[in-house]
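Lab notebook, design round three. We kept the backbone fixed and only want residue identities now. Task for the bench partner: fill in a sequence for the structure below.
Input structure tokens:
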């Protein structure tokens, strides 16, 4: 296999570039590949399903870890959800259940983040400080006609919060409670939604055939990349750190599977 004609390389973050964004220990093989791609003048981007940190925060964390991605080329689930809503309803009033990152992404996109009616969209990301009142208010707004968006779609995920490393209940589990309470079905905006990969590639000015996505997760990175027409590279990492997502029947077979990203350098 020869990947020398690929111009855009999109990387997943957690369990691909670093162990996890809240504990950003670098994978050295990822560093080697990114450095080699940069030397060869390739365009480098990041597409992560994290919504609890903003694109700006993710950029800063990766930069400190030694990954020189430009901030404009860092795409988070929060930013993707904001773009999804903006494309359908510019300036929409959004009630956002999420840790701060997604709120910042929504505001940056020109959406109105509100805590009072009327509400056009209820958007739910991972939130380890959520209250019953917030959940109940969200349900009331959904009963009143608001649409429901899930920022990414993990049932649970590993992380570190208030000094404690643990597995935490994710945004999809919160959304399931709202769906059950209201009968409103959510749209999940994050990998593997093909629109997210397509939009990232288009925004950066490339065609899907020119792009590669590299990630650890068949159900998100590979399924989304395949459905959007990208070349997909699966890196085998710690299986205990693969966050559970639903592939929704998409093809999860990677174009290429490697045990180290240094194997990819030989194909450039
Ligand atoms: Mg990952």
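Proposed sequence:
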């Amino acid at each position: 296999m020869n990947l020398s004609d690929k111009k855009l390389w999109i990387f997943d973050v957690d369990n691909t570039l670093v162990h996890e964004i809240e504990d950003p220990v670098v994978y050295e093989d990822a560093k080697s590949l990114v450095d080699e791609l940069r030397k060869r003048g390739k365009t480098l981007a990041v597409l992560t399903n994290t919504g609890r940190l903003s694109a700006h925060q993710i950029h800063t964390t990766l930069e400190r870890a030694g990954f020189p991605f430009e901030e404009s080329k860092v795409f988070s689930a929060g930013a993707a959800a904001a773009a999804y809503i903006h494309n359908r309803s510019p300036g929409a009033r959004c009630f956002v259940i999420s840790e701060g990152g997604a709120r910042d992404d929504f505001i940056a996109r020109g959406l109105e983040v509100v805590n009072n009616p009327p509400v056009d969209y209820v958007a739910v990301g991972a939130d380890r400080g959520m209250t019953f009142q917030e959940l109940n208010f969200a349900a009331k707004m959904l009963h009143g006609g608001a649409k429901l968006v899930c920022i990414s779609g993990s049932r649970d995920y590993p992380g570190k919060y208030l000094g404690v490393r643990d597995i935490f209940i994710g945004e999809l589990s919160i959304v399931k409670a709202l769906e059950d309470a209201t009968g409103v079905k959510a749209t999940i905006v994050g990998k593997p939604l093909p629109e997210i990969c397509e939009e990232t590639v288009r925004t950066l000015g490339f065609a899907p055939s020119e792009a590669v996505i590299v990630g650890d997760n068949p159900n998100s990175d590979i399924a989304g990349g395949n459905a959007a027409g990208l070349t997909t590279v699966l890196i085998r990492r710690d299986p205990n750190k693969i966050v559970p997502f639903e592939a929704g029947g998409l093809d999860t077979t990677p174009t290429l599977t490697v045990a180290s990203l240094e194997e990819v350098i030989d194909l450039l």
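Keep this in mind before ordering anything: The first strand starts at residue 8 and ends at 11.
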